[in-house]
């Protein structure tokens, strides 16, 4: 409801501004409006707004219809057209807090949203998340939105599934096995870390590096 009101208000403001800045006005010495130019300007303005409005509200109408067929569908908001609530979801926050996105939805453990150009269900329930992780590959399949594939790559361990994911996971776990967790190995890692910190401090005080 809040999202629909916000979007309707945005359309009203854009139309109001267009009346004064986009639609041509009659010359100062004339009282006749240039109606052909007015009609063209209104068509160029209202056509994109109509298309964007349909794109925004059509999923809402479809899911609203599905909501009557399935009462288990959680409530939520789709946010802005096309972007949804992606910007709020990606908004940085301290690691000691949940962030404004989850705090705004904390009244529901599972809620509906629109993230990364696709309708999404967000779960904040610990038991449900544990159940999903335990049944990954059985009842649930790990799928990330297409923009995530473009950022991480198609062979990232976070986006691949099946045997490929299993092989990459074994490679990662082999780096922290028992033989590499002994005190001597950890001591060497700490020494290298201290050396890296020292080199960074030297670079910071050296000025420009050619």
TrEMBL record:
- SUPFAM superfamilies, alphabetically? Cytochrome P450 (SSF48264)
Instruction: Give the matching Gene3D superfamilies.
Output: Cytochrome P450
A GO term, aspect molecular function: monooxygenase activity
**Cross-referenced InterPro entries:** Cyt_P450_sf
The transmembrane segments are: 5-23, 35-63
Q: Which GO terms describe its biological process?
A: brassinosteroid biosynthetic process; brassinosteroid homeostasis; sterol metabolic process
Supply the alphabetized keyword list: Iron, Membrane, Metal-binding, Transmembrane, Transmembrane helix
Protein family (similarity comment): Belongs to the cytochrome P450 family.
What this protein is called in its record is Cytochrome P450
